Amino acid sequence: KEKNVEEGKLITDPSEIHEIGCLGQIVHVQGVQNLGMQLLIAGVGRVLVTGASKTEPFLTVNIERCQDKPYDPSDKVMKAWMLELMSTLKSIVKLEHLFKEQLQTILNQVDVQNPGLLADITTSMTTADRKDLQDVLECLDVEERLARTLRLLKIELEQAQLQKNIHKQMEDNVSKMQRKHFLTEQMKIIKKELGMEVDEKEELIEKMTAKLAEINAPPNAEKIIQEQLKKLSMLETASPEFNITRTYLDWLVSLPWGISSEDNIDIKVAFETLDNDHYGMRDVKDRILEFIAVGKLKGTINGKILCFHGPPGVGKTSIGKSVATAVGRKFFRFSVGGMTDVSEIKGHRRTYVGAMPGKLVQALKYVGTNNPVIVLDEIDKLGRGYQGDPASALLEVLDPEQNKEFLDHYLDVPIDLSQVLFVCTANSLDTIPGPLKDRMELIQVSGYTADEKVEIAKRHLLPKLRDESGMKASDANVTDAALRTLINKYCREPGVRNLQKQVEKLLRKMAFQIATGEATKLSVSENNLTSFVGPPLFPKDRIYDHTPKGVVMGLAWTAMGGTSLYVECVSAATSERGSLRSTGQMGDVMKESTEIAYTYARKYLKKVDPKNTFFEKNSVHLHVPEGATPKDGPSAGITMITSLLSLAMGKSVAQKFAMTGEVTLTGKVLPVGGIKEKVLASQRAGVKTVILPVDNKRDWDELAEEVRSSVDVVFATSYKDVFEVAFPEKKGAEVTTTEEAQSDSP
Known about the structure:
By secondary structure, this protein is of the alpha/beta class. Strands 15-16-14-13-17-20-21 form a seven-stranded mixed beta sheet. Strands 5-6-9-4-10 form a five-stranded parallel beta sheet, with helices on both faces. Strand 1 (20-32) and strand 2 form a beta hairpin. Helix 9 (267-277) packs antiparallel against helix 11 (316-327) and helix 20 (588-608) packs across helix 22 (637-649).
């Protein structure tokens, strides 16, 4: 009785089977390997289960044959049922049915005078469910059995008709599509014969061939293009390889083979362009003008690899665009900061899905010439990952001897990049690999002086930001004094990016007051500046108004520009032998400088004051303020010695006085870097006298006149020169040690 009985389940309860079933006769038995026996059973007749004789080892029941209820074959009603059943069978046979052939056999062979048998066989050929079939089996009234069978046949007839309709709809749709495709192909052939339409593939090949004729491709590139065109002509448009080949050909014929823009070699025009775009930056402008001058004498400007390095916001990227304008070339910029995939430079292999050429090939296609100015931004921030090392890939690009035949993985055709002017930008050279740095001409872009920032704000920032704020110069006036105060007390960084933000903030406040009707015109001066931009971020230029004993101002260079760096020394405790402790988050090099300074200070004190036993009897603590900021480098050597001697002698150094320089154990003062930034930092701090190593005199001479005139400079060869300036009331030691005599000798 259960619909879903587990296979192999043993039936032991008579209630689990129907009362009326079918008696089967085994006609054929065949053994099946690994599956048991296969039986062919023929139905003999209906039987009634009268009871169970035993249940073990399996259910055995008693049965008796069932007989149909008596009926009259000649009865008109019976004949009517049979005729309707036969008619329905014929209708089903005409349609597509699962048992069409079997039903046809019933019509041809079954005795129509035996309605019970006709009903049984016909029912077995339907797709009715088990319940309906069991109802027919249990029905012993022949007329009722015919009625139930006819109902099942009517359901089969409806299903067959529905199946036919579905089949017809599908055939109609397929026929329409085939007919449309056939007519479309015929139309294409007719239009082609009449010259009204060209085949898509042929049109594409003709287009590519025409492009190839227009460009001046080198022989190796032209050979590959011809091979790809031949390959394209043999491919079907529906083939995936067709689109891959088509895209590859598009890139090959779209590159500017032999197409160059005409260079502007007018030095006067270039000078005016650079001056209009940027204020100051004389070193950078001179180098660019020299580059153009060489091109003027040669008649053509060759490619070059320049690297502008300096603090943020000084205009390294924008000067690259100005270079392109000055020489009359197309401009393309992309940032390589954080790039970890070599494929961004060298392109992807064509075997990958979605493969594309590298950025350099994309740049050439975008600008349409083979001699653009390409800016590689943030080259000091190149990444490195499992996809390769982009810095190593750039070695080929930025080498004038190799980039004549730069090979992109996607194109697989050598490309000439020797005419490209590469401009790289970086904040620091420390993170650029040595081989890559060696291939570039390094040009330092230093920070701006206060006067330069004022001019930049007046010429560029204020006019531009006023327009963006919807105001005129007559509505919003900012005095020079206000700009200078804004620069000195709010924007001390070497660049002008933060200055632009502060000017934007200032103009927004002014625009708000004008828009709300609080004022019609506004003027910002030094006196009312704080009401617009808030309290100063740097209210004081110096930590100490009067430098105490043991404190000396040094000068340091950072990625953000120059800054003042105080060195403080105090006597922490008395000691039998004397010792030194240093703090201030110093790096290894700076810690070594403190040890050198302490050793030399003890030796030098014995010369200038032999009776002074301060270092032998005191434990000294040396500290560099702003302990949260990491510090490193040797340039604080003379500053540390001076601070230690100031503490030991109990004398303060000269006021408004700063210094920078590395010192050796024998007292020689060695050159350091970042002179311009350090001098600008001393200028902001109100310093009047600066001590620099004598070997940095060339850096001092390169500074602008307004910077050099703002401070006095003393060049030191040995520490004796520093001591005489720091402590003017004391003369340096007349006695010279053996080490100093050796170091001072030529």
